[in-house]
Write the structure tokens for this entry.
Amino acid sequence: MSESNKKLTSKDITMLGIRSSFLQASFNYERMQSCGFTWAMLPALEKIYGDDKEKLSAAMQDNMGFINTHPNLVGFLMGLMVSLEEGGAPRETVNGLKLALFGPIAGIGDAIFWFTLLPIIAGISCSFASQGSIIGPILFFACYFVIWVLRIVWTKLGYTLGTKSIDMITENSDIIANAATILGITVIGALIATYVSINLLPVITVDGGIEVAVQSQFFDMIFPNILPMLVTLLFFYLLKKKQVSPIVLIVGVIIVSILCSWIGLL
């Protein structure tokens, strides 16, 4: 598309990224995020089609179709779509691209944000906050602010790359997802010892009247934090292999903890 055919400015794309923040403001179970998606796209579409009400209506109707993607990365899809709309791509191409990409974008976004980045940042922030440091909430807020600002970056990236972005997603999605997974497993694994705490109270008296604390002088001497690790692996096994509900595990932990405290074990 030549520069002379462009109708959208950098400011228009920036506003599109900002308006993408309201993707789920009108969430419903029939069309999921379609209302928010259409509202975010509307100013750009109106500028592209101007007085051509028929084409504008067709674009809005397509945007009102079912969509359920990741809110932090939806700007990339919006930028790509307005690029095609501005370039005069057929309706079937624009709508087909939306239907083909919103699922993969949701998967990539979930892996990066919900399952990796935010749990890591939340764990680090909680660690600071539990020590009474104000850095905890500031760090978490700063992370969310950066993620919000990046909405504009993804939107402009999608608009700039246009159809070339499809090949980029295909080539790099596996690498990005695998790298994020490895980082998440490493950090979360290291945080287990910090956030899973088991302290056995019993003290054993051995020959000569020497008292040995079961937790600190037995288990931790053999393998530090082995009990938190074993409990975490047990829960992982129950969740992954036995499909036990997380609610059942939470209630079970509460009951077992109360009973063990009552008999003096914990």
Q: What stands out?
A: The radius of gyration is 26 Å.
